[in-house]
Design goal:
This protein has 252 residues and is α+β, with helices and mostly antiparallel strands. It folds into two domains: 104 residues; 134 residues, 3-Layer(aba) Sandwich (Aminopeptidase). It contains seven helices and 13 strands. β1 and β2 form a beta hairpin.
Length: 252
Amino acid sequence: MRERLRGLERAAVGAWPAPETADIDGWLWRYASGGSLRANSVSTLEFTGDDIAAAIFHVEGRYSAKGAPAQFTITEVSEPCDLDARLAALGYARGEDHVTMLKEVAATREEGAVTLSARPTPQWLSIYLSGLGPGRAAVAPTILARLPERRMFFACRLAGEVVASGLCVADGELASVQCMATRDDARRRGCARAVLRAIEAWAAGQGARHLYLQAEWANRAAIALYEGFRFRVAGRYHVRCKAGEAASEAPC
């Protein structure tokens, strides 16, 4: 179970690549000039060093040089296993709970109302970015331009207009669900579910066996949508932010 979760978390890191990274004793330091929480925190899935305090000090120095808060993503498979407690003892504040969710890829039909493209169209970007705060909206196009090649953008249309967005990045037997957004006046009309079905159909064609996603646990509407699509919680994570420093916005 731990290795499966570790594989999921590694895939998630690769599916939303930060513009700037550095290896710090196995940890992946990430920076994206603000906005995205994932791309502005340290991924802690592996630690190869022998001095944790020195590694934390190194992280803090790198973020300080950028004028950014020091942040660590803490998962159930973070290393070392007591990292969360260590950061808490240093005064790092604990962020909101998030979940990694997983489902088996099932046979599904393609959705005629959903169009696919290898790059984000202006209409797709308009829908996705409209639901983001200023920091996330500013950095998202840069991250989208760095996505792995095995990706697809999904746009649901009503009356010829794009009203919902989604993104899938395929990585071996795993495929992501990301960038889900629906225009306010198109909610509760099945658009998000149509995007999810189209993503699943494409992922199946890429040889993926599981879909995964990451979401804020407090976003009950989104969690209910995903649970209705047979996603189940596979792991939980949160971010630790150095006390007195403003945390980035919620994850993209």
